[in-house]
Amino acid sequence: MAQKISVQSLGTPDKDGFLTKQGGSIKTWKKRYFILKGNILYYFKSQKDSEQTGQITLETTSRCQPEPNQTSKKKGKYYFSVHTTARVYSIWADSESSMNQWVDKINAAVENLKGGGKKDSNNNEDEKETVKQPVKDPEPDPVEDKEDANDDNEVDAGEGGGEGGGVPSDDEDDVNQKGKSINSRIESAKSIISFLNDESSKVLEFWEIWSESIPPKQEITSGSEVHYQLSTSSKLEKLTWKSAGPQSIFIQRMVDFFWNVGAPESEIDRLNDVGASMNPSSIGSWIDMSDKGGMDGGWYFPIEVAVNVAIEACDEGEASTAVVEWANKHNVENCFSVGRDMGAAPPRQTELRFNLSGDYDHQLEVGLDAFELFGFPSLPENALEILNNDISKDHGLSLSVITSSEGFVRIGLLCPNPSNDIVKKLCSISDGNYDNIKQLEKALEAEGPLFAEFQFLKEGFGYGVYKEGFDIIFHYSIGIASSMND
Predict the structure, then answer these.
(1) pLDDT tens-digit profile of 424-466?
(2) Does the CA dihedral 301-304-306-307 come out positive or negative?
(3) How far is Cα 310 from Cα 467, in angstroms, rounded to an integer?
(4) pTM
(5) What is the four-CA torsion angle of 285, 289, 294, 297, rounded to 10 degrees?
(6) Which pLDDT belongs to residue 102?
(7) Which of 78, 353, 395, 444 has the most crowded Cβ, counting Cβ within 10 A?
(8) Would you say 300 and 285 are in contact if contact means Cβ atoms under 8 Å apart?
(9) Per-residue b/e over 413-447, b at no fewer than 16 CB within 10 Å?
(10) What is the spatial distance between Cα 34 and Cα 313, in angstroms, rounded to a whole number?
(11) pLDDT score at 334
(12) Could you tell me the CA-to-CA distances from 122 to 59, 63, 101, 105 in Å, in that order?
């Protein structure tokens, strides 16, 4: 197990200073205070830390070298790499001289391990210091590796994932089956939403910042896809925009967006930790907005994951415990999506989505049992009538649950591919505007919703900007963007 080391306990370093390092599982960047002492390269969050955030153990086979192909002198980022048997670490310094000093010092430490005592070209006085670490090649420390996997996912807000983000423009977008670009669909949909047509609107500004965080088409690798979705209440009063794709091109832009809108560092750390434990191939971001000025955002992993792993994304409390008990009771083993909000103020909210097993009647029973066990009111009689008599039993039901440290926030029963007649009935029971919904579908070129959600938001969690109580939400696919080479 790696021993806890403080900055002060290391004494006079062989080399120290701030560098920016790339993560292991999730490829983001974070500025760290590095100390080279003997054959250990320690890194800390600050110069006063009482415990290292992680460490890199140098071996006789290790090497350090500049990476000129990655270096950007214009941005002041001079990259180098540290190679060990466990991993290759990517790091950048803010000047060429600093990079060269670190490369020389690290390689000198490796030579000392070999017994060669190679001279350091930058500071001859440092030659007088002897290395008091054992010469033997250490085995990789599993605890050290775990610390690195979690910490390395942290992010430097200044390290972007490329320039020119945003939804695909008309000249670069996929032309879907019906010939309309994703960008055109989005703009058509926005034109229908009254609160997105005010150029001075903070909500519109929020949407624009989010849209710029979506990787541009030229960053999508061959064989990969970026999915765009839109959900709306039946009155078009509340919208949720979502986009997801390969972790490799999404993560840095996504985290930069969270920094830009004021997400706390603790929640970005939480994203890193959960990401390291699940290592999702696909990740995404979402934003909520309402006609009353509601604005929220967060991340989600559209992947199948075991309930006992997914629950780690939730804050501890009665709600998360009840979810596990419900899942065990009904043999629900997996989630198909995990997400969390990144708002500046607690309580934090985590959404889990479950596919319900068995035939339709059993799925409905299990879903309604969740409403009762989690302390939500029963669905209105007219909603239950539609679920029992009108919804096609050929499609499976899903359940969405949002928890927080203060209890349950929201629950929703999702029915896939509702017919036009069902959409009309659902608008009727929720005081929605069917004509406006059809206008939105026309803008999106959607034959109908992917899902209709029977949703309930608990009192106190609408914060004056979102409708509390029962509502109907329609979920739509906007489109899928793929590589320019596909």
Answers:
(1) 999 999 999 999 999 999 999 999 999 999 999 999 999 999 9
(2) positive
(3) 28
(4) 0.71
(5) 0
(6) 97
(7) 78
(8) yes
(9) bbbbebeeebbebbbebbebeeebbbbbbebbbbe
(10) 30
(11) 96
(12) 22, 18, 6, 8
Residue whose entry in the numeric block shows the structure tokens 């006789």: 60
108, 129 Cβ separation under 8 angstroms: no
3-state secondary structure of 198: coil
Specify the amino acid at residue 42.
Y
The crossing angle, in degrees rounded to 10, of helices 381-389 and 420-429 is 170
The phi and psi torsions of 221 (rounded to 5 degrees) equal -80, 155
Q: State the DSSP string of 357-392.
A: PSSHHHHHHHHHHHHHHTTPPPPPHHHHHHHHHTS-
pLDDT the model gives residue 145: 40
Give exposure, 117-145, as e/b (b: 16+ Cβ within 10 Å).
Answer: eeebeeeeeeeeeebebeeeebeebeebb
Handedness of CA 272, 209, 474, 460 (dihedral sign): positive
Distance CA(428)–CA(58), nearest Å, equals 68
* Partners of 341 in the β-ladder: 298
For Cα atoms 38, 44, 48, give the angle at the middle one, nearest 5 degrees: 100
Which residue reads 């624009």 in tokens? 208
Q: Longest C-alpha distance within the chain, in Å?
A: 85
Q: Which pair of tokens denotes residue 145?
A: 């590796």
* Cα–Cα separations (whole angstroms), residue 203 to 290, 294, 475: 8, 8, 20
Q: Is 235 exposed, middle or buried (0-12, 13-18, 19+ CB in 10 A)?
A: middle
- The answer to whether residues 132 and 8 touch, using CB atoms and an 8 Å cutoff, is no
Q: Residue 476: name the closest of 436, 444, 430, 453 by CA.
A: 444
**Per-residue pLDDT at 116:** 63
Q: Residue 472's closest CA among 373, 380, 389, 403?
A: 380
Q: What is the distance between the alpha carbons of residues 290 and 326, in angstroms, rounded to a whole number? A: 32
- For 192, counting Cβ atoms within 10 Å of its Cβ (0-12 exposed, 13-18 middle, 19+ buried), the class is middle
- Chain centroid offset of residue 306 CA: 18
Do residues 263 and 157 make contact, with C-beta atoms less than 8 angstroms apart? Answer: no
Number of neighbours of residue 245 by Cβ within 10 angstroms: 25
pLDDT of residue 173: 47
How crowded is residue 57: how many other Cβ atoms within 10 Å of its Cβ?
21
Render the burial of 370-409: b for 16+ CB within 10 Å, e for the rest. Answer: bbeebebeebeeebeebbeeebeeeeebbbbbbbbbbbbb
Rg, Å, the chain Cα set: 26
Question: What are 481's two structure tokens?
Answer: 């963007």
Nearest alpha-carbon partner for 231 in 463, 429, 414: 414
Beta-carbon contacts of 179 under 8 Å, excluding residues fewer than 6 positions away, are none
Residues of the chain with pLDDT under 70: 1-2, 24-28, 74, 116-179, 484-486
Round to whole Å and give the CA distance between 433 and 454: 16
CB 206 within 8 A of CB 212: no
Q: What size, in residues, is the chain?
A: 486
